[in-house]
Every structure is written in C-alpha cells, then in structure tokens.
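Shift notes (night). Ran Sulfate transport system permease protein CysT while the centrifuge was going.
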Amino acid sequence: MSAATLAPVKARGAPFRVMPGFKLSLGFTLFYLALIVLIPLSAVFLKTFTMTWEAFFTAVTSERVMASYRLTFGASLIAALLNVIFGGILAWVLVRYKFPGKRIVDALVDLPFALPTAVAGITLTALYSSNGWFGQFIEGVLGIKVAFTPLGVVVALTFIGLPFVVRTVQPVLEDAEKELEEAAASLGANSLQTFTRVIFPTILPSLLTGFALAFARATGEYGSVIFIAGNMPMVSEITPLFIITKLEQYDYAGATAIAVVMLVISFVLLLTINLLQAWTRGKGQK
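Came back to this:
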C-alpha cells in the first residue's frame, strides 16, 4: 500500500454545509423578507409620521375607533380561547380514536383555509340570521341573536381560526409517547392526573402556538366578518373595516395611524405569547 494511501486526509478549513451557496441564499432571504414585510410596514409608519402628535392621538382614540378596538381584540381573544379548547379536543379525537368518517372530518378541518373568506361570511350569515337554519332556532328558542351582533363576529373568527390550533396540536399528539401514559397509570395515576401531569405539559407549547396563530389571523380578518357583523358603528364595527372606511375617504394618514396601533398591540401580545411559550418549553426540558 502506497504512502499516499496511508496519509491522513486533510481536514477542511470551512465547516460542511448541507445547503450550498449559503451567502447567496441568506442574501435572497433577507431581500425577500424586506420586500414583502419590512418595506410595507415601514411605509405604514412613515405615512403615520406625517401627522402631528395631536392629530395622531385624535385619530386613534376617538370613541368610534376605541369601540372597534374593543370588539376586534376582544372577539379575537374569545375566539382564540374557544379554538384552544375545542380545537384541542378535536385534535385529540382525530389522533386517539377511530370512527366512521374520520378522514372526512379531518379534511373538513382545513375547509376555512380553502374557502374564500367572503364565501365563508355569506354562508355564516345565511346560517345564523333570524331565518337561517341555525339562527331561527337559536333566536326563537334561546332568544339569542347571532347575526349582525358582536356574537356573530366571534362565530366568524372562531370558524377561521380553528384549523390553526388543530394542525399545531395534532402532530404533537401523534408523536407523544403513549408509554408515559401507561407508566403513569401503572403508578396509580387516574385519568385526570395523567392528563394534567403527562399529556397537558407536552401539548401546552403547541396550544400556545395555535392560540397565537388563531389570534393573529382573527385580528386582521375582514372578509368573513363584514357580512355577519352588520357593521354598525359603536356596536359591531371591526377595526379593519374602519381602516377601509378611512381609505375610501382618502384619509390615508388616519388609516395608517389606526393600522400602526393594531400592529403595535398585536406585536406586544404575540411577543408575550412567544415568551410564555419559550418559558414553558424551557421549564419542560428541566
């Protein structure tokens, strides 16, 4: 055997990378991110900066705008919480049980993703109006009016946010180790203890992720809400609709001012949720 064969292979100076052209890929990623996200957001802030502080404060704190904030963020929060509860249950059923029509139910979960938002809004309005299939019984028997009320906004936001929770929790449940549940049962834990101490800590980060996604989608939702909301000022008028109204009145600075407030509030809430999610994951790894 020759000496060349026995010679040690010289180590490479640069670390091995799976994806070639890292610098080019990183540059394109940053450029695309700036083009799609950063530049439009910067334009919103720059347009808002053309206003005086007094004009900005007046535009974003008027009584009608404050009412739209309360409805938009309040309904989004309620809808996201409902989706966490019922979306988690639905994900559990789809993963842990076998029943006829399971594939159909699993496919229907993604319906809000595929359905145009305007079609969803019209359909929900037709179902929950006073003479609709559901609305005539809910209003006639229970005396609760759904369509053209804030409750209708919650229904629409719950509909469009459900898939986010189901699709984030479902893979975690599929990968969960059932042996841990069996071990807990063999050590004397009942069903409630097994859920609270074994299952729930495992799916909590995914639940928080689904909540954040559902909440973020709900705060900016427009198409599926305007039909069922009724758009009555001070009652069922959402903030995205109010921004559209400002644009139709050529009040671009006022529209961007309200949009900036929504961006800041949404960013703070999502940052809080992400920090809570990171803390939960770190606590679970200890």
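The chain has 14 helices and no strands. Residues 70 and 238 are 9 Å apart (CA to CA).
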